Amino acid sequence: MLTDIFSSFDPSTISIYNWAPSPIFWFMNFLIMLMLSSMFWLAPSRLHQISSFPKSIMFEQAARTFGKNMKGFAPILSSLFTLIILVNLSGLLPYVFSTSSHLFFTFSLAIPLWLAMIMSSVTNSPTDFLAGILPGGAPSWLNPFLVLIETTSISVRPITLSFRLAANMSAGHIVLGLIGIYSASALFTSTISSISLLSIQILYILFEMGICLIQAYIFCLLLSLYSDDHTSL
């Protein structure tokens, strides 16, 4: 039994980490992803069609931005979208460590991709990159402040990306933990209350499944939009 509602975010509590060390845990996740992405039959199976649907969404999104000019951007974005969906949904399983609700996971995704776009823009066209920091049509006395504001805005993008995903997933798991605690205590007090709380928890789990998909899409959508500023034509 969990000691408090935040114990679900501790990998040392009752979870898959108790019987599977970290390398085995990650190997199982990558094995599942490999099975979902592999083509076992000559004709596309239903499982393959479902797994290829997120890829097609991100390929279309990348084609609408300047990210299409970056080699490998669309495959990386589609793979990232699939990975975040799988990690988010696996966190809803009982006694499974919610990886996407921790900043070490979100930072490890946001910072390298954001830095790669910055370095690509600086390497390919440093003049255009520096010119994009200063908006056009601004008065001369306001230029230093605008450069500082724009630089700060670009620098905090990986932080906002990471905190947005981790905060939304953490809030959902905290609410699920609260409902579960009250449902467990209501089993010994009132049958009507326990049935009502269990019904609410089932509906909220379905709602959280939608949140898992939406947050994964928002994360990848913002990355694709950031490529408009960082990718030089």
TrEMBL record:
Its main location: membrane. It comes from the Eukaryota. GO terms for molecular function: proton-transporting ATP synthase activity, rotational mechanism. The chain crosses the membrane at residues 24-43, 73-97, 103-122, 129-149, 169-190, 202-226. It is found in: Membrane; Mitochondrion inner membrane. GO terms for cellular component: mitochondrial inner membrane; proton-transporting ATP synthase complex. Keywords: ATP synthesis, CF(0), Hydrogen ion transport, Ion transport, Membrane, Mitochondrion, Transmembrane, Transmembrane helix, Transport. It is a multi-pass membrane protein. Belongs to the ATPase A chain family. This is ATP synthase subunit a. It comes from Terebellides stroemii.
